Amino acid sequence: MASTPIQSRPTRVHGHDEIAAIIGAEILSGQRLPGDRIPSAEELYERFGASRALMREVSKTLAAKGMITAKSRVGTQVLPPEHWNWFDPDVLAWRVRIGLDEAFFRYIAEVRRAVEPAGAALAAERRSADDLRQMRGALERMALAGANRHAFAEADLDLHIAVAAASGNPLFRSFAAVIETALGAYFSLSAPAQNDRAGISIARHAAIADAIEARDGAAAARAMLAVIDEGLESVTRSA
Fold first, then answer.
1. Which structural domain, as residue segments, surrounds residue 29?
2. Single pTM value for the model
């Protein structure tokens, strides 16, 4: 397969993170397909104005994220999506930057369904008074957000992070932190634009906190599932 045509020499030198983001986004968007050859350091110098040493570091970064691999006599090639480290914060940020489609929203929801209800059930067993204060505070900010969907989404994310932290398992909290960028974009789109729908969403989120406070793990898990499913329905309706 032919690689993307190389652009002419730039007027300024790009940095490591910027170059990695540009090439990473090209791979994620399908502009560079699996099996495509990544241009050589010399060709990339012509495009980005960066040194060969810097371009080698960029290649190492993309390889560490599972996006490319170097093969003798073939060169550096793009790997298929199943090799990509989707939980890498950079990969998620690049994916959000190029836009999230309905299929990716469903992928996020499927992973959340597998993880977050279990975290909510554990939170019901292990939550502290401070954990509950964090959840209630997030619910209050959701109510105060009004028509500000960004503020509503931030408070929504804070609630889910508080539940993950209350689980007492650092891996649940790490999961929320790792996909925070993708969830932020997800919640911004799923945040209700109408006050009546916002009230329904807040009530469903409050049910999570209520069940956790009551130490009812099964109810907390069910309430979390309901919120995840509601969010997916909302975001696919808006897409």
1. 1-99
2. 0.81
